[in-house]
From TrEMBL:
Domain Quinolinate phosphoribosyl transferase C-terminal per the UniProt entry, residue ranges: 121-290
Chain ranges of the Quinolinate phosphoribosyl transferase N-terminal domain: 32-119
UniProt record similarity statement: Belongs to the NadC/ModD family.
Keyword presence, Transferase: yes
Pathway(s) annotated for this protein in UniProt: Cofactor biosynthesis; NAD(+) biosynthesis; nicotinate D-ribonucleotide from quinolinate: step 1/1
Keywords: Glycosyltransferase, Pyridine nucleotide biosynthesis, Transferase
Signal peptide: none
Name of this protein: nicotinate-nucleotide diphosphorylase (carboxylating)
GO-annotated biological processes: NAD+ biosynthetic process; quinolinate catabolic process
Organism: hydrocarbon metagenome
Length: 297
């Protein structure tokens, strides 16, 4: 099976961090002493991973990555009846595998943890995306992710139909309240950014300015950033703020947006709404691995 979207996402730093996360998950489990005692190196198991609820499926490519990290992939046969990113009904088998017993049992919890966690994020993201249907507002994630899982979680957001905000602090220069207050205002903070890049302006990442008031929005517009964020504004204030921003500057709403509030936020006409809870508060989806055959002594 081709995992084109997964492979396209996980290149460079993203793939490096993913592999590190898989390696750490296997390492923190330690050796599977129970399986090593009970199964011989030649024992082969057949198993399946099943969705125990209706769910989007995200993270299937972690199965071969985990087995590869253990050095067992070449000895395994894998089948994926469901496409990565597809929706699976309760009871659907999403992966079948056979291979060395010790390797499959050592990998079981790591594979399930990734698939369950990423599928849960995709599910919650899809609910927010559905709430934006009929608008031009797009859903953004944030950097409110679990340590070490930034890239897998942001990948899961794309499976659910969301859009990634900056993946790290270098993707975009974001002037937040602490930067603005330290510099003495938005004009001064922008001047500090431009000074930092005065000899290499072509290398300067896009700038987003966080605004807490209409006055700050007016100041931000004068600096012509790539995007202006309306931080914790109520819908009436947000509509007024949106009217101050000319075409050519993107707008983003942020701060405490939930499913009940997102439609009103989108009605203000913002280009994006960022929601931290799609990663930091997504419930896991329920998957399990069942052994189909066990070698007999």
């Amino acid at each position: 099976m081709s995992f084109a979207a997964f492979d396209a996402f996980f290149t460079g730093d993203a793939r490096r961090h993913l592999l590190a996360a898989v390696e750490m998950a296997l390492s923190e489990d330690g050796p599977d002493l129970t399986s090593l005692a009970v199964f011989s190196p030649s024992d082969v198991l057949r198993a399946r991973i099943t969705a125990k609820e209706d769910t989007l499926v995200a993270g299937l490519p972690v199965v071969p990555l985990t087995l590869s990290t253990l050095g067992a992939l070449a000895a395994c046969d894998l089948e994926f009846p469901v496409d990565e990113g597809a929706r699976a009904a309760k009871g659907t088998v999403v992966c079948r595998m056979s291979g060395p017993a010790v390797a499959l049992l050592k990998s079981e919890r790591v594979m399930l943890n990734f698939i369950s966690h990423l599928s849960g994020i995709a599910n919650l993201t899809a609910r927010y995306v559905a709430a934006l249907a009929g608008t031009t507002t797009r859903l953004l994630d944030t950097r409110k992710t679990l340590p070490g899982l930034r890239y897998p979680e942001k990948y899961a957001v794309t499976v659910g139909g969301g859009t990634n905000h900056r993946k790290n602090l270098a993707d975009m220069l974001m002037l937040k309240d602490n930067h603005i207050d330290r510099a003495g205002g938005i004009p001064q903070a922008m001047a500090a950014l431009r000074k930092a890049y005065e000899n290499s302006m072509e290398k300067m990442p896009p700038v987003e300015i966080e605004c807490r008031s209409l006055e700050e929005v007016t100041q931000a517009v004068a600096e012509n950033p790539a995007r202006i964020m309306f931080d914790n504004m109520d819908p009436p204030t947000m509509r007024r703020a949106r009217a101050l921003v000319p075409q050519g500057i993107e707008t983003e709403a942020s701060g405490g947006v939930d499913l009940d509030a997102i439609a009103a936020v989108a009605a203000s006409g913002v280009d994006f709404v960022s929601v931290g809870r799609i990663t930091h508060s997504a419930p896991t989806a329920d998957f399990s691995m069942q052994i189909e055959s066990i070698p007999q002594t």
